[in-house]
What does this fold into?
Amino acid sequence: MWETSDLGSEDLLWAATNFVGGIASRREAVCGVLSGAAIFLGLYYRVPLSNKEQADKARNAAREQARELVLSFTGEHGNIICGKLTGIDFNDSAALQRFRDSGEWMRKCVGYVQYVIKKLYELETK
It folds into this structure.
C-alpha cells in the first residue's frame, strides 16, 4: 500500500511489528492487519491540524472507512479477534509452530492480509 500512497517508510513497518498475532501476540486482541489498516487510514486522510474544519472532516472520513473495513471484514470472516480467526494461541509456542508447519497461516493470515489490502486499494478508486 505504501507504494501507491506516499507513505513509504520502514518506520511504519516497525511501528506495526507488534500487531502479529493480535497486539503483542494476544489472541484475544484484534487481528493485526486491521490494527495496521486503522493506522494506515489515519495517515491516508491526514491533513494539517491547523485547519480545524478540514481536520474534523478528515478524521470522520478515516473513522468511517475504518468502520466500513471492520464491518466488511467481519461479514467475510466472521470475527475480528485473532484467536477466533486462527484458532490458535500465539503464546503457545508448540501450537504456533504447528500452525506455521501446517501452512494454515498461509491460508488464514495471508488471506486476511490480502483481503484488507484489496479493500484499501478499493478506497483509492472511490
The mean pLDDT is 86. Helices lie at 2-5, 10-15, 32-44, 52-77, 82-86, 93-102, 104-107, 109-124. The radius of gyration is 16 Å. Residues 2-124 form one domain.
